[in-house]
Amino acid sequence: MAKYLISFPSAAMVVPEGELEAVGRDASAVIDEAKAAGVYVFAGGIDGAVPPGLVSADGSVAEGGYSWAPPLDGGFTVLELPSREEAVAWAARIAKACRCMQELRAFGFDPRA
Fold it and tell me: According to CATH, what is the number of the domain 1-13+20-45+73-113?
């Protein structure tokens, strides 16, 4: 079994007016299904109200993220699945619920962590 990261940037999620409540309900239903199926690892989103900080090895903190990188935001789900094909199927379910395409990546889980 491998872990897969299913994600989308905030800008990709363009919800028609009046559908936000349905999106939340549909997305929660998919997460509940993943939990019931025993494939759920974790899910959540980046809190855009809290700015990122770059922390150096000496513990000093600089406001903001990497200036050269695209912003890290949006929603993230990690599922443990037996195949990439099943990961694609779950990503499609999340895409339908969130009304936007999802990025799919194998997640490099460290079992020692």
Answer: 3.30.70.1060
Q: Which of 54, 30, 50 is nearest to 40 (CA)?
A: 30
What does the domain layout of the chain look like in residue ranges?
Answer: 1-13+20-45+73-113
With b for 16 or more beta-carbon neighbours within 10 A and e for fewer, the 18-50 pattern comes to: eeeeebeebbeebbeebeeeebbeebeebeeee
- Cα-only R_g, the chain: 16
Give 16-61 as a 3 state SS string: CCCCHHHHHHHHHHHHHHHHHHCCEEEEEECCCCCCCEEECCCCCE
The dihedral sign for the CA sequence 66, 110, 86, 46 = negative
pLDDT digits (tens, 9 = 90+) for 37-51: 999 999 999 998 999
75 CB neighbour count, 10 Å cutoff: 20
pLDDT digits (tens, 9 = 90+) for 14-33: 888 899 999 999 999 999 99
Mean pLDDT within 79-102 = 97
